[in-house]
Amino acid sequence: MALIEDQSIAIEKGFIAKIGNSKTLATEFNGRETLDLPNHLIMPGLINCHVDFSAPNASALQSRNGKSSAFSDRKNKHTAYSNENKTINQSDVLAELVKTGTTTFAGMTSNIEELVEQSAQLGLRCQLASFITEESGVEYQQNRSLRQTLELHDKYKNNSLINIAFGLDNPTLMKIEFIELLAMYANEIQAPIQGLQATKAKPSSSQNSEAVSSLEQHKQSGLLGPNFQSIPLLKFDEEELAILETTGTKIIHCPSLAMANAQGCNSLQEFWDKDFDIGIGTHYTPSNNFKSLLDTAFLAALLSKHQTLNPKTIKAEDLVYALTLGGAKVLGLANEIGSIEVGKKADLVTLNIGNSNRNFSTYSLTDLLFGNSQLQLDHVFVSGNSLL
Fold this sequence. Notes:
By secondary structure, this protein is an alpha/beta fold. It has 2 domains: 7-44 and 339-386, Urease, subunit C, domain 1 (Roll), CATH 2.30.40; 46-62 and 89-330, Metal-dependent hydrolases (TIM Barrel, Alpha-Beta Barrel), CATH 3.20.20. It has helices at residues 22-28, 90-99, 112-122, 139-156, 176-189, 214-221, 238-247, 255-261, 268-273, 293-308, 316-323, 325-330, 365-370; strands at 7-12, 15-21, 40-44, 46-52, 68-72, 77-81, 102-109, 125-131, 162-168, 193-197, 228-232, 250-253, 278-280, 348-352, 376-382, 385-386. The radius of gyration is 22 Å and the shape is globular. The model is unreliable at 66-86 (pLDDT under 50).
């Protein structure tokens, strides 16, 4: 991954037609519109691989299922509160995602049809999943969610911006028969499945006291595979990593969520060492702790450095890859987006780095993206259409 100066990008019908020297391209293309962007860094649009729209107000200081504690200065006493009944304005969240440079996101929600409509209106590229409940004794609700997802997938299967997925909050709690049914349908229509790996499985029977890995169960059921996007909430051991690796499962690293869950987690470097396709997700919406996907990536780098005890373990180039082409691979979109290449869709962001005297060749991505207080997002394009 390199920084190239004095370059232009020609966009035709939403696709990147040519990349080259600015003066040369100006003679080859008579553009309907030309953007002159000195002192700007142009890069692929950022890909947020996991946003949970069903828990918008949960703080990164909370565990997923816990309650928060807060001190009220006014009453000077300790109070407890829960976020269960708070709602979210999804259109505002989508607008904030655009403002932080996100051109593609994977969202999970209990109100998927509204989110599909709002995303389509805004022109964002997305993978949208409805949660399929894992509670026991609610087979009717599970089957209804399954039918709804299949209907939406059929409705939007030819839409270039929207992809419908299955969302699993904790597949370990589901009956194996339903997981097998879900996996059969998802694999048949090649629909993505995004699931949080939250707990280990219990012993498979009273006669067998040895716990069976939930990943082994999911492998046997057909759930794991290239279409499955795993969001770890705990640390996988070597045996579990091997299962994920052999099935081709994708990994979505949400550092703030994993740390808040406090069950341990694998570092980015561990996954990269085993050649996993990895994307990064905020989990939290822009309305709270993590407004920037770049901030989340920086947190992931710090966590990986801390876990490996190696200050040089993560490079900015690796983070940018995870936020762009790596995320595209996780969502199955690497042939369309994630890098600036001729023939790919023009999903791009432009960042004003704010210094006209800067010599790009002497600066690294760390300087430009993570150490530049003047950094400002100016433009966001999805398939060449300006969203910002």
